[in-house]
Amino acid sequence: MATITISVVILGHNWWAIGALFIILLRIYFLKEPQVLIVTLITCGFFYYWLDTFKQHNQDLQQQVQQQLDQSVEFDFTAWADELDVDGNILKTVATLPQTDTKILVNAVIGDKTTKEQLEQVTGRIVLNIRGNIKLIDEATNPGQFDSRKFYALQQINATLSKGQVKVVQKLGDTATLIGWVHKLHQKVIAYFETLPSNLRFYGETLILGYIRSDFYQENQGIRELGLLHLFSISGFQVVMFIKLLRWFFNQLRIPIEITAILTLLLLPLYFLFSGSIPSLIRAIIVGMVAQGLLIIKSRLTTLDSWSLSLLGGVVIEPGILEMLGGQLSYLLALALVFVRGLKFWQEIIMMNLIILPLLLATTYQTHLLAFLANFIFIPIFTHLMVPLTTIGVLIFPIFPVLSNGIDYIIAELSTLITWLSKLPGNIIFGHFNIGLALLATGMTFYLMQNFKSRRGWLILLSIYFVGFVGLKIPLHGSVAFVDIGQGDSIVIQMPYHREVTIIDTGGRLAMPLKQSWQRRQKQAKTNADMFLVPYLMYQGIANIKQIILTHADADHAGDVEILLKTFKVQHLYVGQEMEKMPKYQQLANKYHVDLVGVHAGQKLPGLPLEILWPIVSGQGKNEDSVVTRGSFGKLNFLFMGDLNRENELRLPTKAISATQVIKLGHHGSKTSSDERFLQAAKPEIAIISAGRNNRYHHPHQETLATLAANKISYFSTARDGMIKYEWSLFGGHWSKMKSE
């Protein structure tokens, strides 16, 4: 526990944990066991040094990156073929910059079909030539967003290659080394799995190899929503299965148990390398190695001692493991298994779900009431049916493909059942659970594992969740948030006490057509809304949206509207006049039972906290038809311009736009909007520009920035500042932004 708190302090930058460390050491002191105290202090000293050294080394690597930012680089590097991810015309891998220790993410374009075929067919090692620009990995610029920069920094990867291009220099082929043999075997196994039916491949790779595709949870969202993650990527039963298989094999050869233990001890690290060194398997690997070591020396340890050694060993092997969600869930579930012994099966299921609930609410912001039932049903099914069936289906496919296809059908039906259950009523968008309350809930859950019948304990636990839930669902302030959605627009307006939520535009991504079929990617990329907007809404605990206003039909404003309609309950969808007659919006309205209304200037809509200023005539959903709205929030008047062009800006009534304090500039700060005469009529104090970083249109244009400067209008930009947010309450209002650099 002391090591956990040290990790939280050094890598998590949570200085409050110093108090927790002091309490732990004080508790040990009052045990009056000098040896325990000395061992604890030595352990604390070692891990403080270990984690601080890791942190300092990472900072040195980040300084190396800073010196090379935006520089054009070209270099050759050697990679193992099984570490290359080729999808369409994109290659993804990790490379080390020459003459440095700096690891970078490579996301490079494959120039021609021949190069792609070479990359797909190569075995062993290959030398690649990479060129592009060095840039920092994107950080989280919206609350609730996954922080890629922090995640990769924990693996000492601190930069990425922008505008990368790749070509093959030389195929080195196979190497006669143990590591080379493992890589070659891994590549062959992965290639074999590619030939399997899709559902059998998904389950086989995950349940048997511990290898999780980047699109696994996109294709199997019900698994995440019902809290069944531990069956696939956290429990480490792949390692248990591997050990059992080795034991059976060596037993058939009449090899003594001590020799079997030695061989298993040596093979487990190779299995870890073979699996792709997945952090969530570290705990299970170490526990397996400890168990084999105890067999060799004919000794025993308690399960709690084994768990503790696996945690300490995990931090040595992967210093950042306790800052990764997979590592946190793995160790938390394993510790809970120690405490639930003696409970009935249904009680174990309840407690195992409750122990991970605070962590999931703090990181994914939602849960499902059917999670308990799902675990009760599917744990036995997976343990006694799906794992054996999947293993059989994988092994016999070359001999009995018909039987494997039958197993694939069973897996598909099971996946359909899981998805169906996840769509039943019961999904709760809770919001970001306060870290203090999450720790209290976790501690109380451990207490209830030992005192399951304690009514007072259950009442306290429910009270903790109630306080956290009410605090999120009934906030005492309102907000206007300009979401950093990339190259697009999305504005979230929350009234105090969550009386209503209004969203202006949803963002989206402009699809770039591919000329040839070989360039088409098989893995579905996440939408901008899935990465930026939806996590923010869930972080805020928003489950119901009163209305969505689509200013016009461009993809960067309205492209992701269906993502919101299928994720949240939406009452009204407002579009510019005549857009409501477009088939795609009518289909969406019918599919998701949303009230679709075309709006125009002067129209009064019940419950809408905005006044509509444009359009005044019917349009086609183009820039010049943008829905322009005005509203007062706190003590400020806001004007939201969509992508309205200069000509129509000047047609807006001066009386309606005057006395504006805040304006969301039209067309992402383009010179085609924000006419100086219009700005002089509106007289805003602050301008907001919603644009993507390093966008291909070079928004905002210098002409617009010059106009703002000439009229003494300060501005925020999502490209520079991340999310920009205005919050107000009875005590006044204030602005905030996500980025400081």
Short account of what is shown:
The strands form four sheets. The protein has an eight-stranded mixed sheet with strand order 14-13-12-11-10-9-21-22, covered by helices on one side. Strands 1-5-6-4-3-2 form a six-stranded mixed sheet. Strands 15-16-17-18-19-20 form a six-stranded mixed sheet.
Structure description:
- It comes from Periweissella fabaria.
- InterPro entries: ComA-like_MBL, ComEC_N, Competence_ComEC/Rec2, Competence_DNA_uptake, DUF4131, Metallo-B-lactamas, RibonucZ/Hydroxyglut_hydro.
- It is a multi-pass membrane protein.
- Keywords: Cell membrane, Membrane, Transmembrane, Transmembrane helix.
- This is ComE operon protein 3.
- Helix 23 (583-592) links the parallel strand 13 (569-576) and strand 14.
- The model has no long low-confidence stretch (mean pLDDT 89).
- Helix 15 packs antiparallel against helix 18.
- The strands form four sheets. The protein has an eight-stranded mixed sheet, covered by helices on one side. The protein has a six-stranded mixed sheet with strand order 1-5-6-4-3-2.
- It has 741 residues and is of the alpha/beta class.
Write the layout of secondary structure elements.
Elements: H1 2-10, H2 17-29, H3 34-68, E1 72-80, E2 85-87, E3 90-96, E4 103-110, H4 113-121, E5 125-135, H5 148-153, E6 157-173, H6 178-194, H7 198-209, H8 216-219, H9 221-225, H10 237-252, H11 257-274, H12 282-297, H13 303-317, H14 325-339, H15 345-363, E7 366-368, H16 371-396, H17 401-423, E8 427-429, H18 435-450, H19 455-473, E9 478-482, E10 491-494, E11 501-504, H20 528-539, E12 544-550, H21 555-558, H22 561-567, E13 569-576, H23 583-592, E14 595-599, E15 611-614, E16 628-633, E17 636-640, H24 646-649, H25 654-657, E18 662-664, H26 676-682, E19 686-689, H27 702-710, E20 714-717, H28 718-721, E21 724-729, E22 732-737
Parallel strand pairs: 4-6, 11-12, 12-13, 13-14, 17-18, 18-19, 19-20
Antiparallel strand pairs: 1-5, 2-3, 3-4, 5-6, 7-8, 9-10, 9-21, 10-11, 15-16, 16-17, 21-22
Helix pairs in contact: 1-2, 1-3, 7-16, 7-17, 10-11, 11-12, 12-13, 13-14, 14-15, 15-16, 15-18, 16-17, 18-19
